[in-house]
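2024-03-11 09:14:02 INFO worker-7 job=invfold-0412 stage=load source=structure_tokens
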């Protein structure tokens, strides 16, 4: 497929004064490699140290210091490449990308330019409407992060913190295969999920472990690619969606007014909800890339790559397919559950030896719903899989109704405990004794002679009677029995 060949679904087009427009997005994601030490030094990568606590002579670019490649970072890049179904280059080269930044003491960033460690791959992205798209990966290369300039600690001075200087980043470059703000969000979400499954990046956007540079252009549907603008360092998935939307609208406005898009680097301001020009876009040749004379080309062996491939964890796409085929879940439910490894594990522990669809329903609707509401994550869930499983067992055996089960869920959430013991000790067992149910029904009928008359003409009133009986039985009457007896007694 040639660059930008896919045309968006017409419902994704943006309406302008001159007709429909199509948005074209590609992303460059900087993902911090999970490793204890930096890419070329032994300094710690731990987040949140005191300023300049994690800085070696190499990171501070002291004269005569030489970089030494960290094998762990190389392994993580290879692992990520395999997870992106990408080609692994057994020979890659580190280059110097030259530019001045106050927080870049070397005066250049060690990166990979012409020969990156990972070549072409792809990511399957599931969209909310149940369809999926493929986003091509152009390359993944390893490079150093820069330090940080701090401007808000002193009225007239800026400070530099080099803790991040030299930390390993994977820059993951996509093809311009994304066609809307929704797709852009979904792509980044999926990429983050893959990285987390692999354990190669923690995906923590608040701490800056994952940052997206979003390239946006607009064109007439299916037409030639327009000039793009790059929105730098967007640090949340929500902002990525907003930035795409705003930038596309801005470009459409300029073109429709007879203007021209200048290729430039822009910033997204989430407070004002707009993108702003930062600088005109520099070209690769401006950086005067050349192979770093301090580093030999990086050569790795196929057997080592094969060994990493053999030990890859089950990735989200495979897990989703397995949840559908072996548990009979809908693709949608399976997709929700595999969104995080811990959620998938929680579900599997709950479903083990039980009705898997019921387990999926309880995990997705009740548990996730409640966790969301209380701003908790699954790691801190007050209810363990064994407890939720026990609850599902009680429904399965008819010991409790689905309604009572929600009450038991509430007790498990707030007080904890064993679901079977809770049901037994608190007398929550479902009443299946038909004579007891019949007695309640007789009371309800006797108290509502008018409704009984009406029900004969209007059988939908049955629902009202069921409600009354359930209420009087404290929700414990078996719903099936209630229905059957009521129908018989009301003659409907
Ligand atoms: Mn980069």
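2024-03-11 09:14:09 INFO worker-7 stage=emit residues=492
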């Amino acid at each position: 497929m040639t660059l930008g060949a896919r045309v968006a679904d017409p419902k994704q087009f943006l309406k302008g004064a001159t007709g429909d427009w199509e948005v074209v997005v590609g992303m460059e994601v900087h993902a911090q490699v999970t490793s204890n030490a930096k890419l070329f030094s032994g300094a710690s990568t731990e987040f949140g140290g005191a300023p300049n606590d994690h800085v070696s002579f190499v990171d501070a670019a002291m004269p005569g210091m030489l970089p030494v490649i960290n094998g762990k970072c190389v392994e993580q890049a290879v692992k990520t490449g395999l997870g992106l179904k990408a080609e692994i280059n057994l020979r890659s080269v580190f280059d110097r990308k030259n530019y001045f930044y106050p927080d870049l003491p070397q005066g250049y960033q060690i990166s990979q330019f012409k020969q990156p460690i990972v070549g072409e791959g792809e990511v399957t992205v599931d969209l909310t409407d149940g369809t999926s798209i493929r986003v091509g990966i152009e390359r993944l290369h390893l490079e150093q992060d820069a330090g940080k300039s701090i401007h808000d600690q002193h009225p007239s001075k800026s400070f530099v913190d080099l803790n991040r200087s030299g930390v390993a980043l994977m820059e993951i470059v996509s093809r311009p295969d994304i066609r809307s703000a929704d797709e852009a969000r979904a792509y980044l979400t999926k990429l983050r999920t893959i990285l987390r499954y692999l354990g190669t990046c923690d995906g923590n956007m608040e701490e800056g472990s994952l940052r997206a540079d979003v390239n946006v252009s607009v064109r007439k549907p299916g037409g030639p690619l327009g000039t793009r603008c790059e929105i730098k360092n967007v640090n949340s998935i929500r902002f990525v969606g907003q930035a795409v939307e705003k930038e596309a609208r801005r470009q459409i406005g300029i073109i429709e007014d007879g203007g021209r898009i200048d290729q430039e680097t822009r910033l997204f301001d989430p407070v004002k909800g707009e993108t702003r020009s930062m600088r005109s876009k520099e070209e690769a040749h401006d950086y005067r890339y050349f192979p770093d004379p301090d580093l030999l080309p990086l050569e790795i062996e196929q057997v080592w790559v094969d060994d990493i491939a053999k030990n890859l964890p089950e990735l989200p796409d495979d897990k989703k397919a397995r949840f559908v085929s072996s548990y009979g879940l809908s693709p949608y439910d399976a997709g929700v559950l595999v969104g995080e490894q811990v959620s998938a594990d929680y579900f599997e522990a709950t479903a083990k030896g039980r009705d898997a669809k019921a387990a999926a329903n309880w995990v997705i609707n009740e548990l996730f719903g409640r966790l969301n509401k209380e701003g908790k994550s699954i790691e801190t869930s007050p209810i363990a899989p064994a407890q939720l499983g026990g609850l599902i067992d009680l429904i399965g055996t008819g010991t409790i109704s689905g309604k009572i089960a929600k009450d038991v869920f509430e007790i498990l959430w707030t007080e904890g405990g064993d679901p079977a013991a809770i049901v037994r000790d608190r007398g929550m067992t479902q009443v299946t004794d038909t004579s007891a149910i019949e007695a309640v029904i007789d009371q309800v009928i006797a108290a509502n002679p008018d409704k009984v008359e009406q029900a004969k003409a209007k059988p939908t009133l049955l629902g009202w009677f069921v409600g009354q009986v359930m209420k009087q039985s404290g929700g414990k009457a078996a719903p099936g029995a209630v229905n059957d007896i009521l129908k018989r007694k009301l003659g409907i």
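2024-03-11 09:14:09 INFO worker-7 stage=report msg="DSSP finds 15 helices and 16 strands in the chain."
2024-03-11 09:14:10 INFO worker-7 job finished
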